[in-house]
From TrEMBL:
Species classification: Bacteria, Bacillati, Actinomycetota, Actinomycetes, Propionibacteriales
InterPro entries: DUF3515 (IPR021903)
Name the record gives this protein: DUF3515 domain-containing protein
Length: 143
């Protein structure tokens, strides 16, 4: 869940305690700028995530299984990271898209406003691939 209130910091959920160490390591490796977007403040500051741009792209670490994901789901592969997005979001280029890493532990969710679909989204996935694969545990690849 993320919320921006009247220009204030974006709210990002803290990871569960079991994911805290891995999420802290990831947060330390996140890029200062994502897809050439400036960072924006988020709260709580110890949420071990990130926010960039206006409207913000947000990254939340330590999330659950995304809605619609199952054993036969296909993924979007980007630089060694498998991302899942619900079908309704992948088919509607005018809506926000929420991608979740489903083969890394802990899982990470990236919420991308519709305005950034296309080149900015692709650049964001490339920028995140290194920090994600260097700090999180890889599992079985998606279909």
């Amino acid at each position: 869940m993320l919320v921006a209130a009247c220009g204030g910091p974006v709210e990002i959920a803290r990871p569960p305690s079991r994911d805290r160490a891995a999420c802290e390591a990831l947060a330390d490796r996140l890029p200062e700028r994502l897809a050439d977007l400036d960072p924006v403040p988020f709260t709580p500051e110890d949420a071990d995530g990130g926010a960039w741009g206006d409207p913000p792209i947000t990254l939340t670490c330590g999330v659950g299984v995304p809605r619609g994901f199952g054993p036969a789901s296909s993924c979007i592969a980007a630089n060694g990271v498998d991302w899942f997005a619900p079908d309704d979001e992948t088919q509607d280029n005018d809506s926000d898209i929420t991608l979740t890493t489903v083969t890394l532990t802990p899982r990470v969710r990236l919420h991308v406003p519709a305005t950034y679909r296309g080149g900015t989204l692709a650049a964001a996935l490339v920028d995140l691939a290194g920090p994600l694969t260097e700090t999180l545990t890889a599992g079985t690849r998606c279909l």
